[in-house]
Write a structure and sequence with these properties.
By secondary structure, the protein is α/β, with parallel strands linked by helices. The chain contains 13 helices and 10 strands. The protein starts with a helix and ends in a 22-residue tail after the last helix.
């Protein structure tokens, strides 16, 4: 499965991931409905997050654990936010099962070794390293040691952070690395997307690249495909009225469907390097320009700028011969509106 997934990322259509995140509001039925809706909206995969408040932080309320950085979550304590947002571990078995029944790939972001050990029992096709864990080299090494593709978001990463993360995977003999350009702002400003990094990371590290997007709307993911993104990840919610920590920057069903449609159209539009004309385009060449008789020309009269012109449609001689035919004598009477052809004038 691992090799198949990497092959798909390299050679198949753009791999579109619906991020469930906290968009279940602590109700398993909403999580299940969201997975089913993701499939209907055109997602290829559903991604979970596997942690508890205690595995990702500690219950401490001093100034270091209070959120005051101008985010959607300002005023909260980290422990309380993660307690509200986490996906109960006892749901995972059913969520994986439902996703597979729907034909979706299902995997998760583990936030500590215990989550990795837990997720291994579900034989996930990949692991995801969240942006804020990119500097947790021991965690990345442990994830990479499982031999599955490692998808890494680079939201808060410097170039050195990315290099260290990729090196950590390689040290464990794992070269199945995928790097996602990400802007860790919620929601993220479009002008900070810097999609050029998608192409640069692919060339710099020799890996599959893509986008984990937190902007509002769908224009950035579509543009990312044009920059070579092979993976698009976007937060997905049944309805923003459900609420929750990530609702404000998540796409609902209609919006996610529109994104998938636009991404697929972008892929078709990008196509391949070719100068061969399709049959439809070939048929349109009849409307190109060619040489036509535009005034009656008696036999023996000279062809001139007044009686021969390059005009539409394209049934006459190629316009490149225009200078050559001027000054030649007509070999018969030529009527206005006739496409000029060899043999109608002296050689």
């Amino acid at each position: 499965m691992n090799d198949l997934l990497i092959h798909r990322l390299q050679h198949g259509k753009c791999f579109i991931i619906a991020e469930l995140s906290a968009n279940h509001n602590q109700r398993k039925d909403i999580a299940i409905d969201t997975i089913r809706a993701a499939r209907q909206a055109g997602a290829d995969a559903i991604k979970l997050q596997t942690y508890t408040a205690d595995t990702i932080t500690i219950d401490c309320r001093n100034e270091y654990f209070q959120i005051r950085q101008g985010t959607l979550w300002d005023g909260k304590v980290l422990y309380d936010l993660y307690k509200e947002a986490y996906t109960p571990w006892e749901w995972h078995e059913e969520l994986f099962r439902v996703a597979r029944e729907e034909g979706l790939e299902c995997f998760s972001s583990p936030f500590d070794r215990s989550a990795v050990d837990f997720l291994e029992s579900f034989d996930p096709p990949a692991y995801k390293i969240a942006s804020f864990e990119i500097n947790d080299i021991p965690l990345i090494e442990y994830v990479a040691s499982k031999g599955r593709p490692v998808i890494i978001s680079t939201g808060i990463a410097t170039l050195e952070d990315i290099e260290l993360a990729v090196q950590a995977c390689h040290r464990m003999g794992n070269t199945q690395t995928v790097l996602l350009k990400c802007t860790s702002s919620y929601p993220a400003p479009v002008e900070e997307a810097n999609l050029m990094n998608i192409r640069d990371m692919a060339q710099r590290f020799g890996v599959v690249t893509g986008l984990s997007d937190h902007t509002m709307g769908i224009s950035v993911p579509v543009a990312a495909v044009a920059m070579g993104a092979r993976v698009i990840e976007k937060h997905f919610i049944l309805d923003r009225s459900i609420g929750g920590p990530d609702a404000a920057f998540s796409l609902n069903v209609e919006e996610f469907s529109a994104m998938v449609k636009a991404v697929r159209e972008a892929e078709l539009a990008i196509g391949k390097v070719t100068y061969e004309l399709s049959e439809k385009v070939k048929s349109s060449r009849v409307f190109s320009r060619s040489l036509f008789v535009v005034e009656d020309i008696p036999s023996g009269e000279l062809l001139s700028e007044h009686n021969v012109r390059s005009i539409r449609p394209g049934y006459g001689m190629h316009p490149r011969y225009y200078a050559e035919v001027l000054g030649r004598r007509a070999t018969r009477d030529l009527k206005r509106g006739e496409p000029l052809q060899p043999g109608m004038f002296e050689a």
